[in-house]
Design goal:
Number of domains: 3
Distance between the termini: 33 Å
CATH superfamily of the largest domain: Alkaline Phosphatase, subunit A
Bound molecules: 2-acetamido-2-deoxy-6-O-sulfo-beta-D-galactopyranose, calcium ion
Number of strands: 22
CATH class of the largest domain: Alpha Beta
Largest sheet: 10 strands, mixed
Strand order of the largest sheet: 7-6-5-4-12-1-13-14-2-15
CATH architecture of the largest domain: 3-Layer(aba) Sandwich
Radius of gyration: 22 Å
Shape: globular
Helix content: 10-25%
CATH topology of the largest domain: Alkaline Phosphatase, subunit A
Length: 509
């Protein structure tokens, strides 16, 4: 209620004409449930529905065959925090300071006054929940949170009725679950302390105590040790609350399933963000060795299992025809992201980004062209769609579906592409701006992709990732050269000039 009140002035600023026109369009919108499954670091080519041969993802494939498989779906950025920021706010993250990869003790990046994707649903009478990886900061200010109390602001201030989250990532402290903004299973006599500056006296680290590790870092990740794995950042205490990586998929999937069960009789929106297949990749023993590709492949099987649990639950609750399931990933794939988990050695011929160049962190397509699936059995026609789509549009698209106006100045970069998302016509996006990990921008427009010149490094040696940076203009024809191998900037200066100007105009909007 408080939230509705806080948006009233904004809603009142919507022109009367708009309201009249749109309320006449359809009196009461249908309110399907929406489950958004957001994978972490899963590449376009990691799923068998997208052509992977070395790995089989039957549950994801089932979702693909009962719905629409998008071949040109993008995350807004090639890393996690900016993609999630854009997903929830409908604003390109490069417009906003402080939206780079967040530390585990970052303060809330999306402040309570922001209108979000979750608000679209909550203000339409949905029950809203987020389960899994958050990585958008918690609490008021970086480094000042009291982790032992109510860590606020948090998801409940930006539209989520329920939350069960990892504050940041699996490889960052604090390694605890946070439910409705309080650490789960915390013993008040053993409080949690977190620092991203210095270690706590007497606490072992991966750097100084490698003998305590069951998985060793390949780069970074050599600070506090939790469950035999050293992480980014230092923490102390909270022994009874520390997560066990091997149980994480079970734990968050069962929370997601409970959310579906508890809200079966009202419309709900569930944002289910898996930790798979981000590092550290430590799947449950029942998946270990099953892919033949080591922990990264096994974590892909675990992800597929989680998807299966969601689909089975919807079916069991008789909700499958009433529920839209969307599946995507926050950025492209990376093989060695900081732990010696044999991902490189056991990769074989598998191509995590499929035919695309680059991967996580990159301006090339591998950075942001990610899996995209949507199913709504009985309503959405199954098929394959090559429309240019982006997760940033979910706010405007679902607002259109629910016929709710978006407050003035909210979700400035989010576009309504409901027809394309529901596979009933619609052209999709005309253009899309993307950012790599150094915030270098590129723009896709029809068949063209222009990557702005950058003095940033071409390659990150540690992860063996191409960033897509070059100190000259880059122009690729994505239809004839989806692998972005031939830079056409010199021979197509007209297109370069046009896209440069367009990018400039969007930036100054
Ligand atoms: C990097 C980490 C990487 C991963 C990434 C964030 C090091 C050396 N590398 O800084 O392991 O955590 O941040 O990934 O620390 S993301 O998917 O959440 O954006
Ligand atoms: Ca990620």
């Amino acid at each position: 209620m408080q939230k509705i009140n806080s948006f009233l002035p904004l809603l009142l600023s919507i022109p009367i004409g708009w309201l009249a026109q749109n309320s006449m369009a359809q009196k009461s919108p249908i309110k399907p449930n929406v489950v958004f499954i957001y994978a972490d670091d899963i590449g376009y080519g990691d799923l068998s529905c997208n052509g992977a041969k070395a790995i089989q993802t039957p549950n994801v494939d089932k979702l693909a065959s009962q719905g629409v498989r998008f071949t040109n779906m993008h995350s807004s950025a090639a890393s996690c925090t900016p993609s999630r920021y854009a997903l929830l706010t409908g604003e390109y993250a490069w417009r906003k300071e402080g939206t780079g990869i967040a530390a585990g003790n970052a303060g809330s990046i999306i402040r309570p006054d922001r209108y979000t994707l979750a608000d679209v649903f909550q203000l339409s009478g949905y029950k809203t929940g987020v389960v899994g990886k958050w990585h958008l900061g918690l609490g008021d200010k970086t480094g000042t949170q009291d982790w032992n109390g109510h860590i606020t602001p948090g998801p409940s201030d930006i539209g989520f009725d329920y939350s069960f989250i990892l504050a940041a990532t699996g490889d960052r402290v604090p390694c605890v679950y946070v439910e409705n903004e309080r650490i789960v299973d915390l013993d008040p006599k053993d409080p949690v302390y977190v620092s991203y500056e210095k270690n706590f006296e007497g606490e072992p680290t991966g750097k100084l105590n490698p003998e305590l590790l069951k998985m060793h870092p390949s780069h970074g990740h050599d600070m506090s040790i939790v469950n035999g794995i050293s992480r980014i950042g230092f923490m102390k205490g909270g022994k009874s609350a520390l997560w066990i990586d091997e149980e994480m998929a079970d734990r968050i999937t069962s929370k997601a399933v409970s959310f579906l069960e508890e809200n079966r009789s009202k419309p709900f929106f569930l944002y289910f963000a898996t930790q798979d297949v981000h590092v550290p990749r430590v799947p449950h023993p029942r998946f270990v060795g099953k892919s033949g590709m080591g922990p990264r492949g096994d974590a892909l099987l675990e992800f597929d299992w989680s998807v299966g649990e969601i689909l089975t639950t919807l079916k069991r609750l008789n909700l499958d025809q009433k529920t839209i399931v969307v599946l995507s990933s926050d950025n492209g794939p990376v093989v060695d992201d900081g732990y010696k988990d044999q991902a490189v050695e056991l990769l074989g011929n598998h191509k995590p980004a499929g035919v695309y160049r680059g991967g996580k962190y990159s301006s090339f397509e591998g950075g942001t062209r990610v899996p995209g699936l949507l199913s709504w059995p009985g309503t959405v026609k199954p098929g394959v769609s090559d429309r240019l789509l982006c997760q940033i549009d979910m706010t405007a698209t679902f607002a259109a579906m629910l016929q709710v106006p978006i407050p003035a100045n909210a979700a400035p970069d989010s576009e309504n592409h409901l027809n394309a998302w529901l596979n009933r016509g619609g052209k999709g996006r005309e253009y899309l701006v993307l950012q790599n990990v150094q915030n270098n921008l590129s723009i896709e427009d029809g068949k063209w992709k222009f990557i702005a010149p950058s003095k940033g490094p071409a390659i990150q040696k540690l992860t063996n990732t191409e960033f897509g940076n070059l100190d000259k203009d880059q122009l690729y024809d994505l239809i004839t050269d989806s692998g972005e191998k031939v830079n056409l900037a010199a021979s197509h200066s007209d297109q370069v000039a046009r896209l440069k100007a367009k990018l400039q105009q969007i930036k100054s909007k």
